[in-house]
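Weekly modeling sync, notes
Attendees: S.R. (lead), two postdocs, one rotation student

Agenda item 3: backlog of single-chain predictions. S.R. asked that every request posted to the team notebook include the full sequence so nobody has to chase files. The rotation student volunteered to paste the first one in as an example of the format we agreed on. Action items at the bottom.

Example entry:
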Amino acid sequence: MNKRKDTRIPIQKRGKDKKNRILLTARKLFIEKNYFEVSTNEIAKQTGVSIGTLYSYFSSKDDILAALLNDYNNYFLLVLKKINDQKSFQTFKIDPKSWLSYLIDQLTDAEDKEFHLQIEMLSFVVPKVFDLRKKHNDQIVSLIYEYFLYYANDTDIHEIRLLSTIIFDYISALVDELLYNKHLPSEKEDIKRYGIDSIYTIIKTHLN
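Predicted structure, as returned to the notebook:
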């Protein structure tokens, strides 16, 4: 579909509300079906606006996806900011398990469970989504690396970089397990606790 370039940025509340309704409807349809099976006509119809109105705010379906990704990224950055302060670094130095628990809670709460599945799927076929997902992952790995540098004394820098990537993979797998597989609340707590214990063992073994 050819992009339309005459989109506008709403200033009035009514226009902003209409644009947000379009985004919410698109997100809902992307989750219920999938991105490739949803058309701009369907989004407009479900929102209750004309296709012309939709195109006055978004130049294409890709443009709508880009706006949703931008919102997703902005929320992620807020979460990243919460775990990137001096207090959090001190917690990691004194009690790594508490820090790991906090990190996992923040990452779990940050995930829009249903929309995240769409992002996972789209990252394999849409370069823009792949780039955003990689950017998020790289930012978390870099933050873990900074924590490990703060914690370690004599560990080689190269080893710390490798360990940061491996620990990120462990944490990601644990977050996915807690989010997407059905468990009783008590089972979730056990999985989280044993997961944290395992990650902590790896950290203690390799950081000196």
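Discussion: group reviewed the output briefly. The chain has a mean pLDDT of 89.
Action items: rotation student to repeat for the remaining queue; S.R. to check formatting next week.
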